[in-house]
Design brief:
It is built from four helices and nine strands, in the order E-E-H-E-E-H-E-E-E-E-E-H-H. By secondary structure, it is an alpha/beta fold. It folds into two domains: 99 residues, no CATH class; 37 residues, no CATH class. The strands form three sheets. Strands 1-7-8-2 form a four-stranded mixed sheet. Helix 3 crosses helix 4.
Length: 146
């Protein structure tokens, strides 16, 4: 299976597209994610939720799965707009949005706090973290492949 690619709406005139709903989309996403780590993929009404612990960044997973996202937010229109994709030579419309959730294992969080303490000369534990400290640590984790 090849990954779907986004098609510009202007490139298509009066072409019918095949609709792909969340359950079928979840199956296709599981196939696309094989070999990229351990993921949990769940289908619900209007959404396919992809969860994983540690591993790849949210940005890299979003980039890999961008063709599956049936709607994108258009800031100029201030609304979500439907988009078409091409999958295996056919025009398809994914009838769902992707929800990506990256979680962190206790080991990774402990190491991140330790690194933060070393970098800034603190002696914080998970219980004594302030909101600002948490934002700094999780911000750094979001950018790292673990």
């Amino acid at each position: 299976m090849t990954l779907p690619t986004i098609i510009k709406q202007d490139d298509i005139k009066n072409v019918s597209s095949r609709l792909i709903f969340p359950v079928e989309g979840a199956k296709l996403i599981r196939q696309a994610l094989k070999g990229h780590g351990k993921f949990r993929v769940r289908a619900s009404e209007g959404f396919v939720t992809i969860e994983w612990t540690d591993g790849q960044t949210e940005g890299s997973v979003a980039e890999l799965l961008s063709g599956f996202n049936g709607k994108v937010f258009d800031g100029q229109l201030d609304m979500a707009v439907q988009k078409l994709s091409e999958l295996d030579g056919r025009i398809v419309k994914f009838c769902f949005q992707l929800s990506l959730i990256r979680r962190y294992s206790p080991t990774v969080i402990t190491k991140a706090i330790s690194d933060y303490n070393t970098d800034f000369g603190f002696n914080l534990t998970q219980e004594t973290l302030t909101y600002r400290d948490e934002k700094m640590i999780y911000g750094k984790l979001q950018e790292e492949v673990l």
